[in-house]
Design a protein that fits this description.
- It is a single chain.
- This protein is α/β, with parallel strands linked by helices.
- It contains eleven helices and six strands.
- Helix 3 runs parallel beside helix 4 (90-99) and helix 5 (111-122) packs across helix 10.
- The protein is 50% helix and 13% strand.
- The radius of gyration is 18 Å and the shape is globular.
- The chain has a six-stranded parallel beta sheet, sandwiched between helices.
- It has two domains: 5-137, Response regulator (Rossmann fold, 3-Layer(aba) Sandwich); 145-217, Orthogonal Bundle (Arc Repressor Mutant, subunit A), CATH 1.10.10.
Length: 221
C-alpha cells in the first residue's frame, strides 16, 4: 500500500485551516502532517516537515504566499506547491507560475477535484484553474502557448507528451473511461487519472472531451 501524500497546509485563518484539513478525513491517501499560519512559518515548517505537497494561501499576513513559495523553491527546487486563492487575479496567476508553483486553485473548488489535483501534482502534473487560462493564453504565451496553432507547431510545442500519454490519448478518443484505460494498459486507476489530467493540461483544454476533439482536429492520433 502506498503511503499517504504528506501535506503542509498554509492558511492564516484557523477556521479555514480546520475546514481544509477536514476535507481529507475520509481518505487515507492524503494527510495534513503540518500547518502554518503565515509565510515565514511556512518556510520553517517546510524545512522540518519535508511535505510532498504544500497547499499555500496567497493572502498571508506577513509575506505573500507567492514570496513564501519562491523562498521554499530556492531551498528545494523539487518542491510541489499549490497556490490557493479566494479571488481571481491576473497578476497573481502569472506571479504564482513564475515563482515555480505547480498549480493555481480557487478556494471554492470541488472537494474531489482538489484531491485529484493534489494526487496529480504529486505525480508531476501542473494544474491551472480554467478561469485563469485566458490570462496566460492571450497575454503570456511564453508560459502557455496559444490554443490554435498549425499541426506542425502544435506537435513541436507538445513534444513533452510522453509515449504513454499518447497511448492514453488514443483511448480517450475511443471514449474509454479511466477504469477502462487502466484495464487496457494494465495500470492503476489513479495512474490513469493522472495521465488524463496531464494530457488535459498539456493540450490546454478543459476536459477529456475537448482533449479528444483537439487530438482528432490536430491529427495527434
Amino acid at each position: 500500500m502506498e503511503s499517504a501524500i504528506k501535506i503542509l497546509l498554509v492558511e492564516d485563518y484557523k477556521l479555514m485551516r480546520v475546514g481544509l484539513k477536514s476535507l481529507f478525513d475520509d481518505t487515507k491517501e492524503i494527510e495534513v502532517t503540518s500547518e502554518a499560519q503565515n509565510g515565514k512559518d511556512a518556510i520553517e515548517k517546510y524545512k522540518t516537515s519535508h511535505p510532498d505537497v504544500t497547499l499555500m494561501d496567497i493572502g498571508l499576513p506577513d509575506i505573500s504566499g507567492i514570496d513564501a513559495a519562491k523562498q521554499i523553491l530556492e531551498m528545494d527546487t523539487d518542491a510541489k506547491i499549490i497556490m490557493l486563492t479566494s479571488h481571481l487575479s491576473e497578476k497573481e496567476v502569472i506571479d504564482s507560475l513564475e515563482s515555480g508553483a505547480c498549480a493555481y486553485v480557487m478556494k471554492d473548488i470541488n472537494t474531489d477535484i482538489l484531491k485529484m489535483i493534489i494526487k496529480t501534482i504529486q505525480d508531476g502534473a501542473i494544474w491551472i484553474d480554467p478561469l485563469a487560462v485566458p490570462f496566460l493564453r492571450d497575454k503570456n504565451r511564453a508560459i502557455i502557448p496559444q490554443r490554435q496553432m498549425s499541426r506542425a507547431v502544435f506537435r513541436q510545442q507538445h513534444a513533452d507528451l510522453t509515449q504513454r500519454e499518447y497511448e492514453v490519448l488514443k483511448l480517450i478518443v475511443d471514449g474509454k473511461s479511466n477504469n477502462e484505460i487502466a484495464e487496457e494498459l494494465t495500470i492503476s486507476s489513479h495512474t490513469a487519472k493522472a495521465h488524463v489530467c496531464n494530457i488535459i493540461q498539456k493540450l490546454l483544454v478543459d476536459d477529456r472531451t475537448q482533449a479528444a476533439v483537439k487530438a482528432l482536429k490536430e491529427g495527434l492520433v
